[in-house]
Structure formats: structure tokens, C-alpha cells
Amino acid sequence: KASSFTMRASSASRAGAILLLLGLVAVLLAPQPTRSQCLSEDDKKSDSLNAKQSHERLYKGESIFTLQLLDAINTATPNENIFFSPYSLYNVLLMMYFGARGNTDKLLRTGLNLQWTDSKATVQEAYDGARRSLVGRFRESSAIGFSSVDKLFFGTHIPIAPCMREKFAETIELLDYVQDPEGQRVYINRWVENATRGQIKDLLIPGAITQNTKLAIANAAYFKGSWQTKFKAGETKKEIFYSYGGQQDFVDMMHVEGTFSHAANEELGCHILELPYSFGGEDEDSNGAGSMNQVSMFVFLPPYEPDALSKLLARLAANTDVLHQVVNDGISRKVDVKLPKFSIEKQVEMKPVLERLGMGKLFDQSANFTGFTAGQEPIWFDEILQKSKIEVNEEGSVAASATVAFSFRSSRPADPAMFHCNHPFVFVIYDFTSRSVLFNGVYRQPEK
User: By the 8 A CB rule, do 158 and 146 touch?
Assistant: First the structure.
């Protein structure tokens, strides 16, 4: 069930109500060259870091945020399936950071792990270069579809800071919220639907946009990937999935036996399997895991124990480096794989989740986002709303921003190893080049 969206009463402050939404997943800013001191007074500061070093530090901060976020969402919704894009949320918070000032600036710098530089210009340049590179690589792929777009939907009556108009010229669009708030809601929903190729519809419910809305930050992304080693449709059968609490349900269980990267990690207490997506070109001729893999789904399968999944997520959040280690630690070998065919669609209000991460003051009326308006108009955000969808089948997966017989063994079992996902597991869609988690989720039980 989609979460409800609430707006503050217009009488609360002359600032009115502001909406921040995530249409689906992912963000791509397209800034233009700008003058010094557009983002902050620190823009003139020079950094000794080159572009590659800046990218690495940005990705590092994003990784820390990603795993802490997944743990926080799991804690908030311990009995539900989960699917969302940490990549998208991190990037929309970066957009907020560019317009933040004062203590709000400091809060976002800490929350987004940006202490490696005092210059917002350095962060923005790293961000822009990294996102352009990511989308460009996928554009060249014949097998993976990935697109990422965003919009800053300002009200026509809002005095946008001149340098912000220049910096985000390709991103800003003006809407008349005062004269036709309902029409603008329909327009934004249509933009999201088009950007996600029809996967996400009716994101905003009637009344979500009002005459008091000043800014809606909308982000949408689309991902479609085909497995490098496809599951055989003829071998998909009804099998039992064992949820926690003793619940048992029949699911369409896919099956394939092939060469995959497989590992058993004692630190995390789980088995890990890499399911690479075909990138087209050379990897079509490969006969083994790890050949030309640029994007893969990693499945983390803990033991069938009540607290095993929560412990796994807590361990990932406590040691964020371990994710980047385990994605490269697997052994290529024959594996007998069973994975449920599933679809997850979730709408998440991120405000309570960010409060768990110490970022609740972003939604206070005292929050300072005057960088968007050069101090001429106060702005605050009520909520961050994300709606995401994933479909996993024999051919691959489409994401629009998810074993009772198991025994944990660190020693290598006889070939073929069995990786049967017939109880709750964690999954992530991981981009190797940027070292980014594009999407992640938890599958606890089939959707009713």
C-alpha cells in the first residue's frame, strides 16, 4: 500500500509548503559553467584532489550512506519486502546540499560523508562527472537499458538565484502552482511515467500539490538488464518459500545451473552469489562469471534463522568496506541456482528513515535552503517520497527508483554448489565501475 503524503498548513509560516519527491530512482544533474561563489563562499577554495580522487571519495561516502540506509529501512519495516534506490536518494540529497546554507549545510555534509572537501564546487564537479560517465557507459551497451533524468520544478513565482538558473539550466522547469496546482500534479506524474517508460504511474495523489508548493524535485530512472546466464523458463516450477514465523507460500521458483561467482563469508554470516547482467559485445561469448561484468545482481543468503537477515544488514552497515570486498571475492564455479520469480513495488516516505540517521532537522522550518533563492525566499521540505519497482524473471530484471536445507560452510563444497533461495534474502544491483549500489532490497515473502 502506498504511503500517504502530508503537507504542512499554509498558515504555519510565510514560507508555505514544499514538496520533495523521488519519481522512481536516480538523479543526473546537467550543470553549466558557473561563476565563483555560486554554491557557497567556499567555491573559490582550491583542492589538491584530482578528478579521479574526488570521484573515489564521493563514491566512498555514497557507499557508507547506502548500507546505513538499508539497515535503517529494514529496522523501520522489519516484516515487509523492501526495494528502493539509495543511489537516487543520495543524489537528491546532494541537490539539497547545493542549495543549503548554515547549519543545514553542515548537517548534509556530515550525513552525506562529504568531509573530504570544504568546497561545494569540488563536490558538484565530481558528482557531475561521475553521473555523466555512468549514464554514458550504459548508453553504449546493447544489452542493458539505463536512463536517469531529473527536474527542479520551481513555481513561476519563485525568485530563483541567477547562478542556480545558470548552473542547473537543463534541469529547471517552471510550473504555475498558484493558478493550477492540480494540473501541475498531473503534469509531474506524466513526466515520471514517461521517464520510467510506463513503470511508475500516479506517483502523486490528488492534493499533494497545492498553491503553497514552491519547489518539487523530481527524479526518475529506468533499468532493464538481461542475465548473462539466463534461467530456463521451462524449469520454473511451483515450490515452497519459507518466510520467518513459520509461514509457507508457493512461489514460481526459477532454476539454472551454470558457472557463477560464489562465496561464503564468515564475517557477514551468509552465502553470496553474483548474477551478472549481459553488457553486450564480448561478454556474450564468455562462459564464466566475471567476464566483462559491469553490472550484477548480488544475492546475500543468510541462514534460515529469525535474526539472521537483520544481523546481516547490521554487519554491512557497521563495516561498509566489506561490500566492495565481497563483490570481488567470489570463486567462479558450477552452481545450481534457484531464485523466486518476483515483483516488488514500494512507495517509501524517507523522512522517518532519515530521522533515524540523524538528519531529521532537514524537515524543520528552521532548515536553511536559501541558496536556491539567494536569500530572497525561504524554502523548506516536508517529505522525501520514493516509489520504486522491480521485476525479476527468467530473462533478467526491470527496475523502475525488491533454504531450509541451507547450511553455512566456509569450506568449498562439492560441485555443483547449491544456492537455493527458498527463504528471505538481500539483493543489490551493483555497478562495478562506479562502485555504486543502484538499487537494493530485501525479499521476505511473495507479494500478496
Answer: no
Degrees (nearest 5) of the Cα angle 354, 355, 356?
A: 85
Question: What is the reported pTM?
Answer: 0.82
Among 347, 352, 358, 345, CA closest to 382: 352
Rounded to whole angstroms, what are the CA distances from 442 to 97, 180, 246, 278, 429? 29, 40, 18, 23, 12
What's the pLDDT band for 26 if we cut at 50, 70, 90? very low
Closest CA to 279 of 341, 342, 227: 227
| Residue ranges of domains in the chain, CATH in brackets | 10-225+344-389 (3.30.497.10), 227-341+395-443 (2.30.39.10)
SS3 state of residue 84: strand
- The Cα–Cα gap between 206 and 183 comes to 10
Distances (CA, A) of 8 to 18, 184, 379, 380, 381: 9, 19, 13, 10, 10
pLDDT digit string, tens, across residues 304-338: 888 899 999 999 998 888 888 888 888 899 999 99
Instruction: Report which of 105, 73, 106 is spatially closest to residue 89, judged by C-alpha positions.
Output: 73
Contact 46, 116 (CB under 8 A): no
Highest mean pLDDT pick, 37-51, 410-424, 427-441: 427-441
Nearest to 383 by CA among 365, 398, 363: 363
Which one, of 8, 24, 70, 25, lies nearest residue 353 by Cα?
A: 70
